[in-house]
Amino acid sequence: MSKVPGYRKMLGMTQDDMAKEFGISKQAYWKKEKGQTQFSDKEKVMFKEMLKPLFPNITIDSIFF
């Protein structure tokens, strides 16, 4: 089970908000969150940076794997 939705909710963001952040459609973001397509390395780094204020020591592995 992906931890991404939980982290997204901790940020107070919707799937639509995240799609806008990443410059993709809501449908494309939904597919990534459901595991149908992979997050790009750039998107993984962006997500990690968004979480850093809440979790200063968070790693990409702890978010996505």
TrEMBL record:
Parts of the chain that traverse the membrane: none
Highest taxon of source: Bacteria
Residues annotated as domain HTH cro/C1-type: 7-40
Gene Ontology MF term list: DNA binding
Protein name: HTH cro/C1-type domain-containing protein
Organism: Vagococcus humatus
